[in-house]
Specification:
Chain lengths: ~325, ~325
C-alpha cells in the first residue's frame, strides 16, 4: 500500500487571503500548503488599481516570503490600456469579474457584463486572463451558475483569443459547457465541490461551515465535477476558493458564504484521487495544468506527503476549516 | 379596500409547544393566536403513554386555559389496544410517526414502518388518525419527501378506512399524491412552505431562522403547495408546524431545524390569501376543513383582524420568528 507520495509544489489558482491581521495568518498558512497562490481581489476596498495590486502583493509576501504570488484585480469598471499594463507590471495576471451581489463583497459588481466589454477587449489584447465568478444574479439559487453560461459562451465567441477561467464550477451544465468551448476556456475546481452536496449544508442539521457560493448542489452535479477533475483534461485545474470567515460571521442569522479549505485541501485531494485510483493525474490537476494555462513555469520543487492520520482542528486562525474535527489520511 | 376581516377562531393542527419553561411561553402565545392546537409529541422524553398525554395536556392548559388542545403521541413502538384507548380517553386524537433521524428528536424513530403495522391496524379500528412526518431517511435532502410517498400509498391501500395526514407537504409530488388518494388521506400546509424556497435559506446569506424539515424547496414546489392551499380542496388544511428553537441553537455549527411561525401565521395567511384573491376560502383552510377531518365541531367563536401594519419583533420568547424585523399588513 502506498505510504508516501511526491508531488510538485501545489498551485492554488484561486484563494481569498482577506486583509489586515487576518491576511497575515491566512497567507502564512497558505505558504505552508502551496508553492503558488493566485489571490482574489474582493477585499474592502477592492483591489482595483495598479497601486493596490502592488501593495496587496507586498502584504502577502511580508507574511509568506517563500510563496509565489499571482495577483488579480476587480473588474468593477472599465480600465484604460495604460492602467492594465501597470496592473500587469505589478504582478496581476487576471481580472476578476463578480456579477452584482452574488457573493462576499460583490455589491460593487457590474450589473451588465457588456458594459465592460471595452476592458475585456483590452484583456484579450494584453493576454491577461478573465476570471469569472459565474453566477447570474436574481435567479433561483440552484440555477445561478447554469443561467450564467450564456455569458461565457458569448464572451468566448466575441473574444476568441481571450483566456477565460470559469471559477469553482459546481454543476453538470457548467462542466459540459467548459468542455465544449475552445481550449482557451478553462475552469477551476475546488476541493469542497468535489466532496459536498446540499446534504452537507441543509441535509441534516444546518452546517454554516459548508455554506458557500456557488452552492454545492445535487449528487449529479458533484459527480460531474469529480469526473472533470479525474479526467486528465487540462481545462480543469485546482483553485481552492478557500474563503475563511471568522466563526461569528458563520454562526449568524445572516451567515457568510465561504469554505475555509486551504489547510486541508491537498490532503483531501490526495484522498479523493486515491479513492478513484487516479493518483497518477493529481500532479497535473494540482499543479501543472494551471501553470500551463497561466503560461508560467511548472513547479520544479517537490513536496512529500505521507499516509499518516491526523485530526483537523475545530478552528484554525479563528475560522472553521473544511472537515473540522474529522480525521484525514494524508499529511 | 378591505380593512377588517372576521374569521372563525383558527385551528392549528400541527404545533410544537416544547416543554418546561419554554412551553409556558409558547402555549400562552399560541393561545393568543389560535382557538385550538394539536400538539406534537416529540418532546424529550417523548409523549408515548396515556399518562404522558394527560400530563402534557394539563401543562399546556395550565399555561393557556382557554385553548382547546388536541394531543398526539409518538409512534415509536407498538401499542396495545388498551393503551390506545387510554390515550384516546386522555385527549389524543392522532399518533405521530417520525422516520428515524429526519428531524428534531427523532432518534427514537422507527426504521421500518411495517414494523408498527399492528398498531396502525388498531388506529384504523379505533378511528385514531395517523399523522406522518413524510420524509425517507438516508436519501438526498431534496428527495426525502418524494421518496416517502410510496409508504403513504401503501398505507392507504393496506388500511382503507384509516384517516392519514401527511404533515407539512412541501413538494409537487406530495401534493399530487395526496390529491390522488381517497378522501380519508389529507395534508397539512404550513405558512412557511407557502412563502419560502431554498432561496430564503441558502440563496443569499445563510438564514438559519428559515431552516426547517421538510425543507422549503424549489419555486415549482412552493407553487404547488400554494395552489393546494388556495384550491378550496378540503384535503388541505392549516397546520403551522411552528417549531421554535432558542436563538443559540439556530446560530450554531449544527443548527436546529424549525421555523417559529405561530405568532405571525394568521396575519401572513390573510396577506397571502388576499394577494391571490382567495380570502373567501381562508375560513375553511384555517379552521373548518381541519375540524371536519378530525370530526370535531367547527369553531363558532370569531376573531377579527384589522389591516394595520406592525413590525415583527427580532425575537419572541427567545426565538426568532418567521419574518422577524419585517412589516406585516394584518394584525
Amino acid at each position: 500500500m502506498l505510504q508516501e507520495l511526491e508531488l510538485p509544489l501545489p498551485n492554488d489558482f484561486h484563494i481569498h487571503l482577506r486583509q489586515g491581521e487576518a491576511l497575515v495568518n491566512y497567507a502564512k498558512s497558505a505558504g505552508e500548503q502551496f508553492g503558488l497562490v493566485m489571490a482574489m481581489p474582493n477585499t474592502e476596498p477592492a483591489i482595483d488599481s495598479p497601486e493596490l495590486v502592488k501593495k496587496y502583493k507586498e502584504e502577502i509576501l511580508a507574511a509568506a516570503p517563500n510563496l509565489q504570488v499571482l495577483l488579480t484585480f476587480k473588474l468593477n469598471k472599465n480600465y484604460t490600456e495604460q492602467e492594465l499594463l501597470a496592473m500587469q507590471k505589478n504582478g496581476a495576471v487576471a481580472a476578476k469579474y463578480y456579477p452584482f451581489g452574488v457573493t462576499t463583497n460583490s455589491q460593487d459588481g457590474v450589473s451588465k457584463i457588456e458594459d465592460i466589454y471595452p476592458t475585456i477587449a483590452l484583456l484579450e489584447k494584453l493576454d491577461l486572463v478573465l476570471s469569472l465568478h459565474g453566477e447570474e444574479p436574481g435567479v433561483f439559487c440552484l440555477d445561478k451558475e447554469k443561467d450564467f453560461l450564456k455569458h461565457l459562451e458569448k464572451l468566448s465567441k466575441t473574444f476568441p483569443k481571450l483566456r477565460i477561467v470559469l471559477e469553482h464550477v459546481s454543476c453538470v451544465e457548467a462542466v459540459e459547457c467548459v468542455k465544449s468551448l475552445p481550449e482557451n476556456i478553462a475552469a477551476t475546481i475546488t476541493v469542497h465541490h468535489l466532496i459536498l452536496t446540499l446534504d452537507d449544508i441543509i441535509g441534516d442539521s444546518l452546517r454554516p461551515q459548508n455554506f458557500c457560493k456557488p452552492l454545492p448542489k445535487l449528487p449529479k452535479d458533484r459527480d460531474a465535477v469529480r469526473a472533470a477533475a479525474f479526467s486528465g483534461n487540462k481545462k480543469f485545474f485546482f483553485g481552492s476558493d478557500s474563503a475563511p470567515h471568522a466563526l461569528e460571521k458563520k454562526q449568524s442569522l445572516s451567515g457568510a458564504a465561504g469554505v475555509y479549505s486551504a489547510p486541508v485541501a491537498v490532503p483531501i485531494l490526495i484522498e479523493e484521487f486515491e479513492k478513484e485510483n487516479k493518483l497518477n493525474l493529481l500532479a497535473d490537476f494540482v499543479s501543472n495544468f494551471g501553470a500551463d494555462f497561466y503560461k508560467i513555469p511548472r513547479q520544479t520543487k517537490k513536496a512529500t506527503y505521507v499516509k499518516k492520520e491526523w485530526q483537523v482542528p475545530k478552528t484554525i486562525d479563528g475560522a472553521v476549516p473544511l472537515r473540522a474535527g474529522e480525521t484525514l489520511k494524508w499529511s
